[in-house]
Amino acid sequence: MRVFITGGTGLIGSAVVAELLAAGHTVTALARSDASASAAEAAGCAVIRGSLADLVVLRAAAAEADGVIHLAFGNDFGSPEALAANVEEEAAALAAVGEALIGTDKPLVTVAGTPGVPGRASTEEDPMPVVGPVGGRGASVNRALGLASRGVRSAAVRLPRTVHADGTGGFAGILTGMARQSGVVAYPGDGTQRWPAVHAADAAALFRIALESSPAGGVWHAVADEGDTVRDIVAVIGRRLGLPVEPRPVEMFGPVGPVFAADQPSSSARTRAELGWEPTHPSLLEDLELLRA
Protein backbone atom coordinates (compact mmCIF):
# COMPACT_ATOMS: atom_id res chain seq x y z
CA MET A 1 0.00 0.00 0.00
CA ARG A 2 1.22 3.51 -0.82
CA VAL A 3 0.74 5.45 2.41
CA PHE A 4 0.81 9.22 2.87
CA ILE A 5 1.67 10.26 6.43
CA THR A 6 1.70 13.59 8.22
CA GLY A 7 3.84 13.95 11.33
CA GLY A 8 6.07 11.09 10.21
CA THR A 9 9.32 12.23 11.86
CA GLY A 10 8.27 12.72 15.48
CA LEU A 11 8.51 10.15 18.27
CA ILE A 12 5.27 8.45 17.23
CA GLY A 13 5.52 9.10 13.52
CA SER A 14 9.00 7.67 13.15
CA ALA A 15 7.83 4.49 14.87
CA VAL A 16 4.80 4.31 12.56
CA VAL A 17 7.01 4.77 9.49
CA ALA A 18 9.33 1.98 10.61
CA GLU A 19 6.34 -0.30 11.24
CA LEU A 20 4.83 0.42 7.81
CA LEU A 21 8.07 -0.11 5.93
CA ALA A 22 8.76 -3.35 7.79
CA ALA A 23 5.32 -4.59 6.71
CA GLY A 24 6.09 -3.90 3.05
CA HIS A 25 4.22 -0.64 2.55
CA THR A 26 5.74 2.36 0.81
CA VAL A 27 5.53 5.69 2.61
CA THR A 28 5.44 9.30 1.50
CA ALA A 29 5.91 11.79 4.34
CA LEU A 30 4.90 15.43 4.60
CA ALA A 31 7.96 17.47 5.62
CA ARG A 32 7.80 21.08 6.72
CA SER A 33 11.55 21.67 7.17
CA ASP A 34 14.86 20.56 5.69
CA ALA A 35 15.59 18.63 8.87
CA SER A 36 12.28 16.76 8.68
CA ALA A 37 12.81 16.00 5.00
CA SER A 38 16.27 14.61 5.68
CA ALA A 39 14.99 12.49 8.57
CA ALA A 40 12.13 11.10 6.47
CA GLU A 41 14.42 10.27 3.57
CA ALA A 42 16.91 8.60 5.90
CA ALA A 43 14.09 6.45 7.27
CA GLY A 44 13.19 5.28 3.77
CA CYS A 45 10.31 7.61 2.86
CA ALA A 46 9.59 9.64 -0.21
CA VAL A 47 9.04 13.28 0.77
CA ILE A 48 6.47 15.94 -0.07
CA ARG A 49 7.41 19.38 1.18
CA GLY A 50 4.71 21.35 2.97
CA SER A 51 2.87 21.88 6.24
CA LEU A 52 -0.64 21.36 7.57
CA ALA A 53 -1.45 24.83 6.27
CA ASP A 54 -0.77 23.76 2.66
CA LEU A 55 -4.22 22.38 1.87
CA VAL A 56 -3.61 21.99 -1.88
CA VAL A 57 -0.53 19.88 -1.16
CA LEU A 58 -2.44 17.74 1.33
CA ARG A 59 -5.34 17.09 -1.05
CA ALA A 60 -3.02 16.08 -3.87
CA ALA A 61 -0.91 13.78 -1.71
CA ALA A 62 -3.98 12.08 -0.24
CA ALA A 63 -5.52 11.58 -3.68
CA GLU A 64 -2.33 9.87 -4.93
CA ALA A 65 -2.04 7.52 -1.97
CA ASP A 66 -3.75 4.21 -1.23
CA GLY A 67 -4.23 5.27 2.38
CA VAL A 68 -3.47 8.13 4.77
CA ILE A 69 -2.28 8.29 8.37
CA HIS A 70 -2.58 11.71 9.99
CA LEU A 71 -0.40 12.40 13.04
CA ALA A 72 0.83 15.99 12.73
CA PHE A 73 -0.13 18.70 15.20
CA GLY A 74 1.43 22.06 16.05
CA ASN A 75 4.01 22.09 18.83
CA ASP A 76 3.16 25.44 20.45
CA PHE A 77 1.31 24.83 23.74
CA GLY A 78 2.50 28.05 25.39
CA SER A 79 -0.81 29.89 25.44
CA PRO A 80 -4.53 29.24 24.92
CA GLU A 81 -4.35 31.25 21.70
CA ALA A 82 -1.49 29.14 20.31
CA LEU A 83 -3.27 25.93 21.23
CA ALA A 84 -6.47 27.14 19.56
CA ALA A 85 -4.52 28.00 16.41
CA ASN A 86 -3.04 24.48 16.35
CA VAL A 87 -6.52 22.98 16.65
CA GLU A 88 -7.91 25.17 13.87
CA GLU A 89 -5.02 24.37 11.54
CA GLU A 90 -5.42 20.64 12.10
CA ALA A 91 -9.18 20.79 11.51
CA ALA A 92 -8.70 22.38 8.09
CA ALA A 93 -5.93 19.93 7.17
CA LEU A 94 -7.90 16.86 8.17
CA ALA A 95 -10.95 18.12 6.29
CA ALA A 96 -8.84 18.62 3.15
CA VAL A 97 -7.41 15.11 3.33
CA GLY A 98 -10.83 13.61 3.97
CA GLU A 99 -12.39 15.42 1.02
CA ALA A 100 -9.76 13.94 -1.31
CA LEU A 101 -10.70 10.41 -0.23
CA ILE A 102 -14.50 10.63 -0.48
CA GLY A 103 -15.92 7.80 -2.57
CA THR A 104 -12.63 5.87 -2.81
CA ASP A 105 -13.05 3.40 0.09
CA LYS A 106 -9.43 4.17 0.98
CA PRO A 107 -8.39 4.20 4.63
CA LEU A 108 -7.87 7.40 6.61
CA VAL A 109 -6.44 6.76 10.06
CA THR A 110 -6.32 9.78 12.30
CA VAL A 111 -5.09 10.31 15.82
CA ALA A 112 -7.03 11.26 18.92
CA GLY A 113 -6.60 11.07 22.67
CA THR A 114 -8.26 8.65 25.04
CA PRO A 115 -11.10 10.47 26.83
CA GLY A 116 -11.35 10.85 30.58
CA VAL A 117 -14.45 9.40 32.23
CA PRO A 118 -15.12 10.16 35.92
CA GLY A 119 -14.79 7.13 38.17
CA ARG A 120 -13.66 4.52 35.65
CA ALA A 121 -11.36 3.69 32.78
CA SER A 122 -12.58 5.04 29.45
CA THR A 123 -13.37 2.61 26.65
CA GLU A 124 -13.61 2.73 22.89
CA GLU A 125 -17.36 3.33 23.20
CA ASP A 126 -16.93 6.60 25.12
CA PRO A 127 -17.26 9.76 23.00
CA MET A 128 -14.47 12.21 22.46
CA PRO A 129 -14.81 15.50 24.34
CA VAL A 130 -15.62 18.40 22.05
CA VAL A 131 -15.26 21.16 24.65
CA GLY A 132 -12.26 22.32 26.64
CA PRO A 133 -8.69 23.26 25.63
CA VAL A 134 -8.42 20.56 22.94
CA GLY A 135 -12.10 19.88 22.35
CA GLY A 136 -11.77 21.06 18.78
CA ARG A 137 -9.55 18.07 18.04
CA GLY A 138 -12.35 15.75 19.12
CA ALA A 139 -14.74 17.53 16.79
CA SER A 140 -12.30 17.18 13.88
CA VAL A 141 -11.86 13.47 14.51
CA ASN A 142 -15.64 13.01 14.72
CA ARG A 143 -16.02 14.67 11.34
CA ALA A 144 -13.37 12.38 9.88
CA LEU A 145 -15.13 9.33 11.28
CA GLY A 146 -18.35 10.62 9.76
CA LEU A 147 -16.79 10.21 6.33
CA ALA A 148 -17.41 6.48 6.72
CA SER A 149 -20.85 7.14 5.27
CA ARG A 150 -19.27 8.84 2.25
CA GLY A 151 -16.95 6.12 1.04
CA VAL A 152 -13.92 6.66 3.27
CA ARG A 153 -12.65 3.83 5.47
CA SER A 154 -11.93 6.25 8.27
CA ALA A 155 -10.73 5.18 11.70
CA ALA A 156 -9.32 6.81 14.82
CA VAL A 157 -6.51 5.51 16.99
CA ARG A 158 -6.79 7.11 20.41
CA LEU A 159 -3.46 7.56 22.14
CA PRO A 160 -2.98 7.77 25.90
CA ARG A 161 -1.48 10.81 27.58
CA THR A 162 2.02 9.34 27.45
CA VAL A 163 3.44 7.65 24.37
CA HIS A 164 7.00 6.84 25.32
CA ALA A 165 10.26 5.38 24.04
CA ASP A 166 13.64 5.23 25.77
CA GLY A 167 12.36 7.19 28.75
CA THR A 168 11.01 10.13 26.76
CA GLY A 169 7.68 11.25 25.30
CA GLY A 170 4.19 12.32 26.28
CA PHE A 171 3.09 13.90 29.54
CA ALA A 172 5.81 12.06 31.46
CA GLY A 173 8.37 13.42 29.01
CA ILE A 174 7.07 16.97 29.50
CA LEU A 175 7.46 16.64 33.27
CA THR A 176 10.98 15.28 32.75
CA GLY A 177 11.92 18.20 30.51
CA MET A 178 10.56 20.72 32.99
CA ALA A 179 12.47 18.99 35.79
CA ARG A 180 15.77 19.21 33.91
CA GLN A 181 15.26 22.95 33.47
CA SER A 182 14.00 23.80 36.95
CA GLY A 183 15.85 21.28 39.13
CA VAL A 184 12.55 20.04 40.62
CA VAL A 185 10.24 17.28 39.44
CA ALA A 186 7.00 19.24 39.69
CA TYR A 187 3.55 17.75 39.23
CA PRO A 188 -0.04 19.09 39.36
CA GLY A 189 -2.82 17.85 41.62
CA ASP A 190 -2.32 15.43 44.50
CA GLY A 191 -0.50 12.81 42.44
CA THR A 192 -3.21 10.17 42.71
CA GLN A 193 -4.52 10.92 39.21
CA ARG A 194 -3.77 8.16 36.73
CA TRP A 195 -2.30 8.51 33.26
CA PRO A 196 -2.52 5.70 30.69
CA ALA A 197 0.54 4.98 28.55
CA VAL A 198 1.88 3.00 25.61
CA HIS A 199 5.28 2.43 24.04
CA ALA A 200 5.63 4.17 20.67
CA ALA A 201 6.44 0.90 18.90
CA ASP A 202 3.25 -0.71 20.23
CA ALA A 203 1.19 2.32 19.17
CA ALA A 204 2.78 2.12 15.72
CA ALA A 205 1.66 -1.48 15.35
CA LEU A 206 -1.93 -0.44 16.03
CA PHE A 207 -1.79 2.33 13.42
CA ARG A 208 -0.65 -0.23 10.85
CA ILE A 209 -3.36 -2.71 11.84
CA ALA A 210 -6.03 0.01 11.64
CA LEU A 211 -4.77 1.09 8.22
CA GLU A 212 -4.88 -2.47 6.93
CA SER A 213 -8.01 -3.85 8.50
CA SER A 214 -10.13 -1.45 10.56
CA PRO A 215 -13.74 -1.25 9.43
CA ALA A 216 -15.01 2.19 8.46
CA GLY A 217 -15.76 4.31 11.49
CA GLY A 218 -13.63 2.18 13.83
CA VAL A 219 -12.36 3.70 17.10
CA TRP A 220 -9.41 2.01 18.81
CA HIS A 221 -7.38 2.51 21.98
CA ALA A 222 -3.60 2.20 21.88
CA VAL A 223 -3.36 1.67 25.63
CA ALA A 224 -0.83 -0.69 27.18
CA ASP A 225 -0.81 0.62 30.77
CA GLU A 226 -4.33 1.39 31.93
CA GLY A 227 -3.23 4.03 34.41
CA ASP A 228 -0.08 4.69 36.45
CA THR A 229 -0.46 7.27 39.19
CA VAL A 230 1.38 10.52 38.61
CA ARG A 231 2.90 10.02 42.07
CA ASP A 232 4.54 6.78 40.86
CA ILE A 233 5.65 8.38 37.59
CA VAL A 234 7.36 11.37 39.19
CA ALA A 235 8.94 9.16 41.84
CA VAL A 236 10.85 7.29 39.14
CA ILE A 237 11.75 10.52 37.34
CA GLY A 238 13.02 12.10 40.56
CA ARG A 239 15.06 9.04 41.51
CA ARG A 240 16.63 8.66 38.07
CA LEU A 241 17.46 12.37 37.76
CA GLY A 242 18.47 12.80 41.38
CA LEU A 243 16.00 15.65 41.86
CA PRO A 244 13.38 16.47 44.52
CA VAL A 245 9.72 15.80 43.75
CA GLU A 246 7.19 18.48 44.70
CA PRO A 247 3.56 19.37 43.87
CA ARG A 248 2.87 22.65 42.11
CA PRO A 249 -0.30 24.63 41.30
CA VAL A 250 -2.14 23.50 38.20
CA GLU A 251 -1.77 26.99 36.72
CA MET A 252 2.00 26.49 36.50
CA PHE A 253 1.47 23.96 33.70
CA GLY A 254 -0.25 26.37 31.31
CA PRO A 255 -3.38 25.66 29.26
CA VAL A 256 -2.98 21.89 29.59
CA GLY A 257 -2.68 22.05 33.39
CA PRO A 258 -6.28 20.92 34.00
CA VAL A 259 -5.69 17.95 31.68
CA PHE A 260 -2.49 17.07 33.56
CA ALA A 261 -4.39 17.11 36.86
CA ALA A 262 -7.28 14.92 35.69
CA ASP A 263 -7.70 11.24 36.52
CA GLN A 264 -7.94 9.56 33.13
CA PRO A 265 -7.29 5.78 33.07
CA SER A 266 -8.24 4.01 29.88
CA SER A 267 -8.88 0.47 28.62
CA SER A 268 -8.00 -1.19 25.31
CA ALA A 269 -9.94 -4.42 25.89
CA ARG A 270 -12.13 -4.05 22.80
CA THR A 271 -9.18 -3.12 20.59
CA ARG A 272 -7.24 -6.18 21.67
CA ALA A 273 -10.22 -8.48 21.20
CA GLU A 274 -11.37 -7.20 17.80
CA LEU A 275 -8.08 -6.29 16.10
CA GLY A 276 -5.76 -8.76 17.83
CA TRP A 277 -3.40 -5.99 18.92
CA GLU A 278 -1.19 -6.88 21.87
CA PRO A 279 1.53 -4.58 23.26
CA THR A 280 4.91 -6.24 23.77
CA HIS A 281 7.29 -3.40 24.65
CA PRO A 282 8.31 -2.02 28.08
CA SER A 283 5.75 -0.29 30.30
CA LEU A 284 6.08 3.41 31.11
CA LEU A 285 7.59 2.84 34.55
CA GLU A 286 10.06 0.34 33.10
CA ASP A 287 10.97 2.73 30.30
CA LEU A 288 11.54 5.64 32.69
CA GLU A 289 14.26 3.58 34.35
CA LEU A 290 16.35 4.42 31.26
CA LEU A 291 16.49 8.11 32.22
CA ARG A 292 19.91 9.50 33.07
CA ALA A 293 20.73 12.57 35.12
- Biggest sheet layout: 7 strands, parallel
CATH-level-2 architecture of the largest domain? 3-Layer(aba) Sandwich
Uncertain parts? none
Under CATH, the homologous superfamily of the largest domain reads: NAD(P)-binding Rossmann-like Domain
What gross morphology would you assign? globular
Distance between the termini: 43 Å
Number of helices: 11
Number of domains: 2
State the total count of DSSP E strands.
12
In sequence order, what are the helices and strands, one letter per element? EHEHEHEHEHEEHEEHEEHEHHH
Task: Assign the structural class, choosing from mainly alpha, mainly beta, alpha/beta, alpha+beta, or little secondary structure.
Answer: alpha/beta
Strands in their spatial order, largest beta sheet: 3-2-1-4-5-6-10
Mean pLDDT across residues: 95
Topology-level CATH name of the largest domain: Rossmann fold
Fraction in beta strands: 15-25%
Rg, rounded, reads 18 Å
Portion of residues in helices? 40-55%
How would you describe the overall organization of this protein?
The protein is of the alpha/beta class and 293 residues long. The chain has two domains: 2-162 and 197-221, Rossmann fold; 167-196 and 227-267 and 282-288, Alpha-Beta Complex (UDP-galactose 4-epimerase, domain 1). It has eleven helices and twelve strands. The strands form three sheets. The chain has a seven-stranded parallel β-sheet with strand order 3-2-1-4-5-6-10, sandwiched between helices. A three-stranded mixed β-sheet has the order 7-9-11. Strands 8-12 form a two-stranded parallel ribbon. Helix 1 packs across helix 7 and helix 4 (80-101) runs parallel beside helix 5. The termini are far apart.
